[in-house]
Amino acid sequence: MIIPIEERLARVLLTCVAEPGDERLGRLVDQEGAQGAIEAVRAGGVPDCPDRVELEKRFPAWRARLSEADPERLLAACEERGGRLLCPGEAEWPSQLDDLGAGRPYALWVCGDQDLRFGCLRSVALVGARTASPYGVHMAAEMAAELADHNWTVVSGGAYGIDAAAHRGALSADGLTVAVFACGVDVPYPSAHAGLFAEIARSGLLVSELPPGTTPTRPRFLIRNRAIAALTRGTVVVEAARRSGAISTARHARDLGRAVMVVPGPVTSPTSVGCHTILRDWGEAVCVTDVADVLDRVGLIGDDMAPERRGPVLDRDHLAPAARDVLEALPARGGAGAARIAVTAGVDLDTALACLGALSAGGFVERCAKGWKLRRGPAEP
């Protein structure tokens, strides 16, 4: 669908005048359209709607921002940096964002050559603590790299710690990764990640609901988290303290009906307290320890199901049922005669003798003064 230029400019202005996720403004846009909403802000006349009282309180601030906004300049600046604006209804718009209802983005500012909608069809969010432990960094990087090997996109927030490890893990496997900002896509935050963001822009995508030049604020990080959750099929919390922005991302994922997954950590680690709290208190959350577990939750039934977890395969696992019964019938200490072993195993004497011969050849049992006994050594069960 081709979006008229007037509609695009109106959505640029919406990203300038209001904070992302304002559901009252979202409902006004649904009712009046983007252009109608901007005209209402400009004229100061609140349409008849259920949110009229609250909108009247917001209109003066929005009108002040509107007077300073230059949508044509913002679009040109974004395009000069290789970016673009995505609007709802366009081919590249990720339709899963519409699950946010009135809180969906007014538009998205995107930098990078990849297709956002296609890239997020098979995507997982990896989020966690900024002050991550070496364990958490290792798990995030390994999971991201293996997800990339399975052609899954890794989405995160570009922050220190788990986010950065997830992005770098995906890049190391030549996979697609998406960084969702709480500032303009041209504002590297944190500044120490400028090189990382440049690399993501070359092979992945930088995404923001805020126009170029916008700086981050604490509320914007929390609001941004809902977009990370909505873009993906599920959220993995790799490491999180008791109070963590990653928990808010998981909460949004839960509310949206997405899979919520948690990597367990040492019970002595402060950065695992939030993870364990989710596992204990949220019935919807599941424990994951590797990518097989993750794909079992978010993948396609029959294609991505995790294999059954099994312990090590022992030599005795390859024995026939009757031979296993005979082996179990031998006493732990000392020996026993074939007749007694047959009675204990519940088989006839001929079967017991045949099994004892096979078990002896396999190194499981040996003859003794009392008949037969377990052989001690490498073949011991």
Give a brief rundown of this model:
Helix content is 46%, strand content 12%. With 381 residues, the protein is of the alpha/beta class. Strands 1-2-6-5-4-3-7-8-9 form a 9-stranded mixed sheet, with helices on both faces.
Report on the structure:
- There is one protein chain.
- The chain has 381 residues and is α/β, with parallel strands linked by helices.
- 46% of the residues lie in helices and 12% in strands.
- It contains 15 helices and eleven strands.
- It has helices spanning 5-17, 23-43, 52-68, 71-80, 116-119, 134-149, 162-172, 194-203, 218-231, 245-255, 273-281, 291-298, 321-329, 338-345, 349-361; strands at residues 83-86, 108-111, 123-128, 153-156, 177-180, 205-208, 234-239, 259-262, 286-287, 365-368, 371-374.
- α7 (162-172) links the parallel β4 and β5 (177-180).
- The protein is elongated, with a radius of gyration of 30 Å.
> What is the C-alpha radius of gyration, as a whole number of Å?
30 Å
- The total count of strands amounts to 11
* Beta-strand residue percentage: 5-15%
Please give the CATH class of the largest domain.
Alpha Beta
Examine the coordinates and then state which fold CATH places here, giving the name of the CATH topology of the largest domain: Rossmann fold
**How many H/I helices?**
15
Strand order in the largest sheet: 1-2-6-5-4-3-7-8-9
DSSP helix fraction:
40-55%
CATH-scheme architecture of the largest domain: 3-Layer(aba) Sandwich
Q: How far is it from the N-terminal to the C-terminal residue, by CA? A: 68 Å
Characterize the largest beta sheet: strand count, sense, and whether it forms a barrel. Answer: 9 strands, mixed
The helix/strand series, from N terminus to C terminus, equals: HHHHEEHEHEHEHEHEHEHEHHHHEE
Structural class, please? alpha/beta
The tally of domains stands at: 3
How does the overall form come out from the CA principal axes? elongated
Low-confidence runs: none
